[in-house]
User: Which sequence fits this backbone?
């Protein structure tokens, strides 16, 4: 049995999802979005994200944290903003002694849908199916966070099978 | 009397400098660089940076944190890396309830040297002069951190004079 905390990082909306894997069976333990008010100073926003992540880690005791890497193209400003949120995610994991793993959006989509170019709705539907949820998870940031956790579980299972 | 913690952010080398201002008089209380081993996982590096910043804040009890903004050009990868360190700096300040202020390198150079295009050595020399140090501070990341703290003190003095 393994529990993985998946994160779709962002300073305005940070998606999280907690997935439990037992053999080939998967279940969602938690999932949602940490939303910040944009008029709130960034240092307070990051402190709130950190506090929420510490709570999630304490509650679910995951074995690892899986973070979705963001594709920036040439937008240094976006990269910088997401980088700040990612730094806080890695710090929260580091303080709890948890290892972190990064996955590109393509790898996450391929793990969940079988295609690196799958659309948002397709990812939401497949995450719902794989986790046996009654409906596809909403909003998409939460679905993406659950997807990256599933991606890590699949990779970990594969590494174990190879090793 | 006001104490300001200045930061030159980076994940490999993070410069810090603590400046005390009493009227027009300035003094350096502390300064240095938090260096990370590049083979260390990023989450551990960020946790170590966080721990050191918490120690510095607890020891010197600054009223504010001043952070140098980095100019990225079009390099999203660098922006992302520096963003992660900056996120941890802002979080460390936010957890202590300290307000954060950002300054461009140009503003910092102008505040310290009178010119936004001053070179690294010129900044080091002027920081040494303004803080009455026997020698220019080394390395340059520590000097830059002291410079951004001085820049904030000057700006705060100006804002007080205006307000």
Assistant:
């Amino acid at each position: 049995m393994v529990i993985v905390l998946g994160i779709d990082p962002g300073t305005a909306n940070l998606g999280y999802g907690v997935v439990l894997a037992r053999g080939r069976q998967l279940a969602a333990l938690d999932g949602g979005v940490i939303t910040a008010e944009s008029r709130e100073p960034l240092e307070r926003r990051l402190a709130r994200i950190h506090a929420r992540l510490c709570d999630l880690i304490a509650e679910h005791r995951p074995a690892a944290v899986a973070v979705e890497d963001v594709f920036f193209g040439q937008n240094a400003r976006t990269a910088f903003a997401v980088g700040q949120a990612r730094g806080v995610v890695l710090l929260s994991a580091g303080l709890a002694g948890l290892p972190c793993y990064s996955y590109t959006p393509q790898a996450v989509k391929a793990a969940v849908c079988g295609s690196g170019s799958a659309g948002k709705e397709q990812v939401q539907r497949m995450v719902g199916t794989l986790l046996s949820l009654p409906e596809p998870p909403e909003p998409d940031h939460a679905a993406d966070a659950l997807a990256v956790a599933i991606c890590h579980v699949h990779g970990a299972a594969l590494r174990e099978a190879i090793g």
